[in-house]
Specification:
alpha/beta, 9-stranded mixed β-sheet, Rossmann fold, 6-stranded parallel β-sheet, 2 domains, 37% helix, binds nicotinamide-adenine-dinucleotide, 12 helices
Length: 370
């Protein structure tokens, strides 16, 4: 059973313990920024590595809204994309690197953080290279295809004295913060059951169905959100055992390398159970936690925006919130304040260990302990 940095998360939740304070977070950050600016702190520079859809449609726009970090460079395999980003984001010439020349970022003091946004099978190498260039690193989820790679990434950042965070944007989303607060409330009683599904219908062939690049199918890509939510609601702990069944393939030609769908059960200490489902050939986006007398549910639960929540006490409502901006700003604040990120490499590793156990359980039909 592992406990991942509950202290830093508690500190963050402390700021968000009610809907009203959650909505008030942005002004609070702005106020603290002006105070710290007076003491000479500057927003940190971010280099986005991998300019695919998540960078283009989420992280790039979010970096226009961050208070504590700003886009200062891009690292890409496609020079034309790099030139387009420099123009669109008003970056100076020379701030686009390619994968072969990225070691030169070591000489650019405008880059504090490298944000790795490429397929998971490439994360380890890019994280190691960024750490060797003495940069802090945010690595997108899933952290890597194997625990062994996660260990190498954690060790490299530690050896370089740099922070490693995972792109777990929902850590900051007010609905998820509220769900955690609700489940912790003594009036909720003892958590007994959880269930969650994250699934979508994938179009055609891409790295997402290539095991060496993706690390698996929907489980590491979107099922990981159910794993995350369950560990969080259970008290920031890993399950003690899992069982799993891979679903029958309706499109075997597309899913020759990876699972098309997966059902699994996570057993937490004290008899708490979570039923999970993920698929690339179905729809699903919900999470629910129950005690004997109360319940709380998010549906949709894992989207970038438009989340909805209900509980045994009524509707849960929050103002629109930029998850990615909050996530990157908090990582920057962790660097500036030299504190632990609530979404460290160790948490990414925990989830990959659970994923590996689920694959083992599905392959053997046995209950796998962690
Ligand atoms: P994408 O396919 O749109 O983009 C991937 C980028 O990586 C492309 O620019 C591609 O050129 C580059 N790349 C570098 N090396 C590559 C290689 N060997 N093979 C293929 N492409 C390579 O994918 P995406 O949706 O932007 O996902 C990128 C990462 O972000 C993944 O780890 C994914 O899980 C993660 N992601 C996270 C979220 C989130 O909500 N946190 C959402 C979407 C994607």
């Amino acid at each position: 059973m592992s406990r991942v940095h509950l202290t830093s998360r508690r500190r963050f939740i402390g700021q968000l313990s009610t809907a009203a304070t959650a909505v008030a977070l942005a002004p609070a950050l702005r106020a603290s920024k002006s105070v710290s600016r007076a003491s000479g702190e500057r927003p940190l520079g971010v280099a986005l590595l991998g300019l695919g859809s998540y960078s283009t449609y989420q992280l790039g726009p979010a970096l226009r809204e961050t208070k504590w970090c700003r886009l200062t460079a891009v690292i890409t395999g496609t020079p034309a994309k790099g030139r387009r980003w420099l123009k669109e984001h008003d970056l100076p010439p020379g701030s686009a690197y390619n994968y072969d020349t990225m070691e030169r970022i070591a000489d650019n003091p405008e880059i504090d953080i490298v944000y790795v946004v490429t397929p998971p099978g490439t994360h380890r190498d890019f994280v190691l290279r960024a750490a060797r260039a003495h940069k802090h690193v945010i690595c997108e989820k899933p952290m890597a295809p194997s625990v062994q790679e996660c260990d190498e990434m954690i060790a490299a950042c530690r050896a370089a004295g740099r922070k490693l965070g995972i792109g777990y944007r929902l850590e900051y989303d007010p609905f998820h913060v509220e769900m955690e607060r609700f489940v912790r409330d003594p009036k909720f009683g003892r958590l007994q059951r959880m269930s969650g599904a994250h699934a979508f219908r994938i179009g055609g062939r891409s790295w997402r169905v290539d095991k060496s690049l993706a690390g698996g199918g929907p489980l590491p890509d979107v099922g990981i959100y159910v794993i995350q939510a369950a560990c969080r609601a259970a008290g920031d702990i890993a399950p003690i055992a899992v069982t799993a069944q891979e679903g029958k393939k309706e499109r075997p030609e597309l899913f020759s390398d990876v699972e098309e769908s997966m059902r699994w059960t996570m057993e937490f200490p004290g008899g708490v159970v979570c039923e999970g489902f993920t698929s690339y050939n179905a729809d699903g986006n919900r999470f629910r936690a129950e005690s004997a007398k109360e319940w709380v549910e998010l549906s949709p639960a894992f989207s970038y925006s438009g989340l909805r929540g209900r509980s045994s006490r009524g509707e849960i409502e929050f103002a629109p919130f930029n998850q990615q901006a909050a996530q990157m700003d908090d990582f920057a604040r962790c660097i500036l304040e030299n504190r632990e990120t609530p979404v460290p490499g160790e948490m990414g590793r925990r989830d990959i260990a659970i994923m590996e156990a689920i694959y083992r359980a599905a392959a053997t039909g046995e209950r796998v302990t962690l």
